[in-house]
Design a protein that fits this description.
Elements (H helix, E strand, L loop, with lengths): L8 E2 L4 H6 L4 E2 L3 E6 L5 H13 L5 E5 L4 H10 L4 H6 L3 E5 L7 H15 L3 E5 L1 H20 L10 H17 L4 E7 L13 H4 L2 E8 L4 E9 L9 E6 L2 E4 L1
Parallel strand pairs: 3-7, 3-8, 4-5, 4-6, 6-7
Antiparallel strand pairs: 1-2, 8-9, 9-10, 10-11
Helix pairs in contact: 6-7
Bound molecules: adenosine-5'-triphosphate (ATP) and magnesium ion.
The site of magnesium ion has 3 residues, from helix 2.
Length: 246
């Protein structure tokens, strides 16, 4: 008897990318998209949610950079009519002002949204900003909870921040969602992300890069735990149709 193991894939929203990753992203994966400023991370996130909503599937895009208006404008430029899907509640596009919102409430919000809306996919833009604030607030929470004065606080903020990211990823893993986490890639640094460990926790890592001297853009699949893929950089362009990989 032949047993076929069919792994389900979700299309990324960029057809030319799906071709180099064997048809799409393995369903349920946690995907990390890394890149320098202007690399195309948020645009990729837009393609990702648009792919779902135009096929009648629910998607969530959460931004912590106060750029909802810019995202809508970018999408419009690529002929993605997001407003239509926001209006019929297929797309939840929410921005958070990190300077005014309790980050613990944001985590509660994300959990509640994923559990009650049961989205096919979610974008976190960006994990770097969210985790940066998690560190600060979690640190303060401990100070408040344990009634310590900050000078007696010997718990490393790094440990607190890591705990928040691990918790978020584990929460996504308990649901059906295929999550795309956007992270800033520090330049001239040995690690792929500022936190130096989310690249190890996520199932797939997609790197968007740009060579300054030539202006050429590239996409590289750093890892995809359950798919065959090559390791070479593929030329990429951002056109009036969005991201295209050659
Ligand atoms: N209509 C367009 N046509 C061609 N290129 C575009 C268009 N719109 C945006 N771009 C390119 O995309 C870049 C912005 O992409 P995006 O917002 O996805 O970057 P990002 O990686 O999210 O950056 P950041 O880390 O700053 O948020 C711009 O700097 C520009 O080079
Ligand atoms: Mg962005």
């Amino acid at each position: 008897m032949i047993i076929l193991v069919i792994s389900m894939k979700v299309k990324s929203g960029v057809n030319s990318l799906d071709k180099i990753i064997g048809g799409g992203i393995p369903k349920g994966d946690i995907v990390l998209v890394i890149g320098a400023p202007g690399a195309g991370k948020s645009i990729f996130g837009l393609h990702y949610v648009y792919q779902a909503v135009k096929n009648g599937k629910k998607a969530i895009y959460l931004t912590f950079e106060l750029n909802k208006k810019i995202l809508l404008k970018q999408a419009e430029g690529f002929k993605m009519d997001l407003n239509k899907y926001i209006d019929n509640n297929l797309l939840i596009l929410r921005e958070y002002d990190m300077t005014k919102t309790d980050v613990v409430e944001i985590y509660k919000d994300i959990k509640q949204l994923v559990e009650t809306e049961n989205p096919e996919r979610i974008v976190i833009d960006s994990l770097s900003i969210l985790s940066m604030y998690s560190e600060i607030t979690a640190g303060m929470e401990i100070v408040r909870t344990l009634d310590m004065s900050p000078t007696n606080l010997h718990v490393s903020p790094e440990v607190l921040r890591r705990g928040a990211i691990v918790g978020l990823i584990n929460m996504f893993r308990r649901t059906n969602v295929t999550a795309l986490l956007i992270a800033e890639m520090p330049e001239g640094h040995h690690y792929l992300t500022r936190d130096t460990f989310s690249e190890f926790l996520c199932d797939d890592v997609i790197k968007l890069s740009r060579i300054e001297s030539t202006g050429k853009r590239f996409v590289t699949i750093i890892k995809m735990r359950t798919s065959k893929h090559d390791l070479v950089p593929h030329k990429m362009d951002i056109t009036n149709k969005g991201i295209v990989i050659k």
